Amino acid sequence: MTSQVSSPAEQADEANNEAVVGGQRRPAGDKEIRRLDRVIIRFAGDSGDGMQLTGDRFTSETASFGNDLSTLPNFPAEIRAPAGTLPGVSSFQLHFADHDILTPGDAPNVLVAMNPAALKANLADVPRGGEIIVNTDEFAKRAMAKVGYDASPLEDGSLDAYHVHPVPLTTLTIEALKESGLSRKEAERSKNMFALGLLSWMYHRPTEGTETFLRTKFAKKPEIAEANITAFRAGWNFGETTEDFAVSYEVAPASHAFPTGTYRNISGNLALSYGLVAASKQADLPLYLGSYPITPASDILHELSKHKNFGVRTFQAEDEIAAIGAALGAAFGGALSVTTTSGPGVSLKSETIGLAVSLELPLLVVAIQRGGPSTGLPTKTEQADLLQAMYGRNGEAPVPIVAPRTPADCFEAAIDAARIALAYRTPVFLLSDGYLANGSEPWRIPDIDELPDLRVQFATGPNHELADGTEVFWPYKRDPQTLARPWAVPGTPGLEHRIGGIEKQDGTGNISYDPANHDFMVRVRQAKIDGIEVPDIEVDDPNGATTLVLGWGSTYGPITAAVRRLRKAGLPIAQAHLRNLNPFPRNLGEVLGRYEKVVVPEMNLGQLATLIRAKYLIDAQSYNQVNGMPFKAEQLATALKEAIND
To answer: Tell me: the pLDDT tens digits for 265-282?
Structure first.
């Protein structure tokens, strides 16, 4: 397999024959252009090859072009994983389309493999007939032996079922940059930009945004910026001039997939960060984040630290316990207070969460779930912390739980969690996961007047009259609607009151060891959570099905895609999805009772199903996966079909 390669000078001449439309290079030659309705691309290489940056740039240009999209970054936990090994492979998958889509896709149509490890680690996911772009420069004998190849897969016929494009990416990049003044090693680092340019040509992606990004990113090193831009352009021109790529593809914008509005591409962690800032502005309260870095939640700390202009204060503590302690102190002081973490950090924070339950102060505990137990799989996704959020504290310490369903939904979920915390004076779990945190999709930027009013009234004076007519402040006198206690800012004259974890007396807040009072306070705290107003669960059931698939959190996309496939095949199935997991929607029991079968897919061993069985006495069927990856739509469709026909 060979390809015709033009010299960089010839490629530059070809570039002069391109049309530029709206900042997008368009092929001007006579190559065939095919229209597609959707494409799934996966970039794969060593963790140091820049695959996440490459995928992110392709995604950004795809979003600006107007396609619907969904992404799945997948990378090792090590800062620099062993080069050329299977555990060291980093990949980025992007699914984009001219219509509404829900998942990053089950299998890539195109795999870009930067080395033998990337090829071997990802080949099983590529369907027969799929396209594979291989960096042939990396297929040296030693590199292949490191991952178990006895002979080159490029020559032994093992790839005959695929459409393989052998491209010497490293050589071409070095040749394109030979006048840059960079060393060979420095020039090699731009090979991911060559690959990005090639793929941008293949799928007619805009280019201006990437060039602007590179100049901004490397503003202090202009020679590196120009080298990357040169490699990017060389990749584009290579696609235009080589005979091996005879076809390019167009995927039209998803003009009918979205309501009218202004959109941007957004990841779950970024959407969640924006939601927290928006909630603080709608509450007219300063936002305080007490956090300790932990994958995959650290990006929220990084993002919120940029927004001091919105009154955001961020504190990177020395450990998880100090972080939540500071956050709870800020809540006592009158801030919209947040702490961010993942499962291991929740374990360390549990005692202080219990203190927040006892003190009845608003506190958002943002937990981005990952594979466990212990350190587990820090960069992989899982939904296995639901029961930890529900019960992972000593004593009866109920806490509301809110779970977003898509990356963009993290914005709304953050605002809803803040609403509950502020209105009911309680810590609230916001339970996202690594799939949502790192994945991205288009998000419609809301108008300010669409956001809820979250303003609260602080206590300003006495709220209780004693039998002798004396007016006093009772810190645990409750709102009859919400059962929330008053929120008194420290330093307000006359509102001094006790804090601490020892049980309080109803009303006065005095320390109490009275058994009857403890029983009463435990029941009141539970009643407060049970009484939280949450929307009824909505059921999508157009055909009167007898089987309901019930999900929560990030399973929404795969479940919905699977349901669409089954309905297209003529099989009736109903779907419902939970955002509020404590308390459950009030109509959930009635909804579950309508169906003969209830199937609950989860990325754990059946935690929601356990809760459903216990509370509603429904024989919910679990369908579980705990391999660190999200469900595939076809996998779920097969399982749900079996449940329907069983």
So the answer is: 999 999 999 999 999 999
